Structures are given as C-alpha cells and as structure tokens.
TrEMBL record:
Compartments, as annotated in UniProt: Cell membrane; Golgi apparatus; Membrane raft; Secreted
Top-rank taxon: Eukaryota
One Pfam family cited in the UniProt record for this chain: LRR_1
Keywords attached to this entry: Cell membrane, Disulfide bond, Glycoprotein, Golgi apparatus, GPI-anchor, Immunity, Inflammatory response, Innate immunity, Leucine-rich repeat, Lipoprotein, Membrane, Repeat, Secreted, Signal
InterPro entries: Leu-rich_rpt, LRR_dom_sf, Monocyte_diff_Ag_CD14
Organism, as annotated: Microtus ochrogaster
Signal peptide range in chain numbering: 1-17
Official protein name in the record: Monocyte differentiation antigen CD14
Membrane topology: Lipid-anchor; GPI-anchor
PROSITE patterns associated with the record: LRR (PS51450)
Gene3D superfamilies reported for this sequence: Ribonuclease Inhibitor (3.80.10.10)
Length: 371
C-alpha cells in the first residue's frame, strides 16, 4: 500500500516537472471551429495544420511580436501553384487574427494570400500594426469579404490606415465594425468609395463624439450605407448626430444611439434627419424626457431603459409603429399613481393612447414589442 502511494506520488511529481506542452490548436468535434493560441514562448506552429479543414478559424499570437519573421518571409513574392491550390481548397469562412504585433507588410501579405480563399468574414483584434507597406501591385488582391471587424487595432500609419487597408480588399464589403479604434480621424481624400457598404458599426469608441463622427463619416465615400451603429461612442445629443449625418449626406434607415449619455438640447438649431430613417434606438441613454426634434415619423423607436419619470405625451413623440418604453421609472410608479391620483392623471393618458399610441399601451401591459 505504502509503495503504491509512493509510486503514485512519484508519477505526480514527474507530471508536474514535465508538463505536456499544450497543443496550441484545438479543433471541435464537428470539425467546424478551430482555434489556436500560440501563447507558449516556443509554440508548435505546425499545429495550425489542424485547422486546414475547419470553417471558423481563430489564431491568437499570445501578444508576441511577429517582426522577426519578416526577415524570413518574402511578403512580395507570388505564392506558388502548390500554395494557391491549397488556399483555393480551404473551406474557411470566418477568420480571426489577434493578440500580436505584426509588421504591415506581413499583414497585407496575409491578405493577399487570403485573396485566393473564399473567406467571407475577417476579424482583427488586439493587433499593433507596425511600419508601412508598399501599395499592392495589383489592386484589390485581397479577400472578397462580406464583413470586416476590427477591435483595438493600432496602426503606425495613423489616420491613413483605412485607405491603406482598403486597397487590398475587393469592393464588395457590406459590413464594417471598428471598435476601440486608435484613430477614426480618417484622411478622407485618400479613402476610396465603399460601393456596397450597408452597415457601419462604430460602437465602443467612447472618445468619438459628434465632432469625431464628422471626420469618420467621410463624405460621399459610403453611398450605400443604411445602418449606422454608434453604441457607446461618446455621442452627446441627437441633434448633434443629426447634423453630422447631414454633413456626410448619408441616407440612413437605421440609427443606433443606445448606451450614450444623451441630453436634450433646448432650442438646438433644427436639423433634417435622413428622410428614409425609420428606426432609432435611444435605449440606455439616460434620457429624462423625449428629446425634441426627433424625426416626425418612425417605424421603430426604442426609448427603453431611460429615466423617463412620466409617461410621454403623444405630442412629444414621433408617429411611431413600434415604440418601446420598458425599463423607465414612470412604469414602476404607474400602479401606485393610479391609487392616489384617483385616476385623474392616468385617465387622459389612456384616452390619448387610444388615439395613436396603441404600441405604448402594449408596453404598459407588459408585452415586449421587440420579442
Ligand atoms: C491564450 O493562452 C493564454 C495562456 O494560457 C491565456 O492567458 C490567453 O487568455 C489565451 N488567449 C485566448 C485568446 O484564448
Ligand atoms: C507539432 O504539431 C504537429 C501537428 O499537430 C504534431 O504532429 C507534432 O508532433 C507536434 N510537435 C511537437 C514537438 O509537439
Ligand atoms: C489592445 O491591444 C494591445 C496589443 O496591440 C494590447 O496590449 C492591449 O492590452 C489591448 N487592449 C485591450 C483593452 O484589450
Ligand atoms: C484630424 O486630422 C486633421 C488633418 O487631417 C487634423 O487637422 C486634426 O487636428 C485631426 N484631429 C484630431 C482630433 O486628431
Ligand atoms: C436597442 O439597443 C439595445 C441596447 O444596445 C438593444 O438591446 C435593443 O435590442 C435595441 N433595440 C432595437 C429595437 O433594436
């Protein structure tokens, strides 16, 4: 018994002294998702071959610098036929590259290789892109992406980064997310038109603000834009955002301003909202009243989780089909107020609801309109 225990302890000690280096890459049972985390100081890079047959692929560099690889790879050379054959046969649809310091020529070299694949979505996160790269020999030789997401990517080329990155992408990009940007003050004259971009998400840039928004929305470079998301983007007033949209002459249909601390600007100069705007999200914006100067007519208006202490009067609201007021304090006090106001306040509100605000009534009855 004692001997067995001794052997067991010895095994434990050995296991502790020589821990099996974890394989950096893992493929799920369905063979769909493959993720590699090369955080080990001496990672086994060839483990990445595990991901060749996957569809969703993630590579994380463990915060390492890839600069020393630059001496070993020729980022300009054309890939050989063997390599392009492999690239063309890849099933990769979504790729994430993250947590590394990468020289620009290497990143753009990767994009050129991805130009041979059918990749649809690319995410770059927590990257520091160093140095500059020569423009591509062949325009738009990178991937034909549908969606590009960047989060916390810094660029040595500062304000010129979008124009530089854009040269590699085919022009079909439809969705662009840029979060935690280090610069959104684009050099607009260098940016070319994004002919198919329908959704621009600049959420989680708390330093942006209305002024920054004007420089980010390069005028006439986003002619197809329909949806703009500005959650937690340092926006101050709906009218300020309206002016920025007007300056960029965007014909938006949906605008998301949720998670900004908005205030109403009394007597702000009037602003014409985009005529096709039909959905406006003002939830979680700390509003104490419905801001003045909202579009006159909307299909969707989300005013949920604000600080509305009283039921908005119909004349304060745009004509709206789907209105959400959930999570506002006036809804909590409603049942009590009915008691001690003897219905005096409540009754007129009800009758005006009947006129045009059946949607509000549905919310009051506890029905989620966006369920
Ligand atoms: C990669 O592994 C390191 C060390 O185990 C860990 O701290 C880090 O969170 C991992 N990164 C990702 C993106 O999973
Ligand atoms: C590195 O990974 C490859 C592929 O998974 C594997 O065949 C090889 O044995 C690994 N090498 C080491 C030293 O772990
Ligand atoms: C942003 O990315 C850098 C690497 O470029 C990293 O050091 C930093 O921790 C990241 N910040 C956040 C908030 O994730
Ligand atoms: C934005 O860039 C312009 C030049 O393109 C410069 O004049 C301006 O100061 C920059 N703004 C910020 C906030 O960096
Ligand atoms: C409005 O934004 C909030 C928070 O970002 C979100 O939960 C909600 O679904 C959005 N409402 C609509 C109508 O999309």
């Amino acid at each position: 018994m004692e001997r067995q225990l001794g052997l067991f302890l010895l095994l434990l000690t050995l296991a502790h002294a020589f821990p099996a280096a974890p394989e950096p890459c893992e493929l799920d049972d369905e063979g769909v998702r493959c993720a590699c985390n090369f955080s080990d100081p001496q990672p086994n890079w060839s483990s990445a071959f595990l991901c060749i047959g996957a569809i969703d692929v993630e590579f994380y560099g463990g915060g390492r610098s890839l600069e020393h690889f630059l001496k070993r790879v020729d980022t300009e050379a054309n890939p050989s036929k063997d390599i392009t054959d492999v690239l063309e046969s890849l099933q990769w649809e979504r790729l994430t590259l993250g947590n590394a310091r990468v020289p620009a020529p290497m990143l753009f070299g990767v994009l050129r290789f991805l130009g041979f694949t059918n990749l649809k979505e690319l995410t770059l996160e927590n990257l520091e892109v160093t140095g500059t790269a020569l423009p591509p020999l062949l325009e738009a030789s990178g991937p034909n992406l549908n969606t590009l997401r960047l989060s916390n990517v810094s660029w040595a080329t500062r304000d010129a980064w979008l124009a530089e990155l854009q040269q590699w992408l085919k022009p079909g990009l439809k969705v662009l997310h840029i979060a935690q940007a280090h610069s959104l003050n684009f050099s607009c004259e260098q940016v070319r038109v994004f002919p198919a971009l329908a959704t621009l998400d600049l959420s989680n840039n708390p330093e942006l603000g209305e002024r920054g928004l004007i420089s980010a929305l390069c005028r006439s470079k986003f002619p197809a834009l329909k949806v703009l998301a500005l959650r937690n983007a340092g926006m101050k007033t709906p009218s300020g955002v309206c002016s920025a949209l007007a300056a960029a002459s965007l014909q938006l249909e949906e605008l998301d301003l949720s998670h900004n601390s908005l205030r109403d600007t009394e007597g702000a100069p009037g602003c014409d909202w985009p005529s096709k705007l039909n959905s406006l999200n003002l939830s979680y914006t700390e509003l104490e009243q419905v801001p003045k100067g909202l579009p006159a007519k909307l299909s969707v208006l989300d005013l949920s989780y604000n600080r509305l202490y009283r039921q908005p009067r119909p004349d304060e609201l745009p004509k709206v089909v789907h209105l959400s007021l959930t999570g506002n304090p006036f809804l909590d006090s409603e049942p009590h107020s009915e008691g001690y106001n003897s219905g005096v306040v409540v009754a007129p509100v009800r009758s005006s609801l009947a006129v045009g605000l059946s949607a509000t009534l549905a919310v009051l009855q506890g029905a989620g309109l966006f369920a």
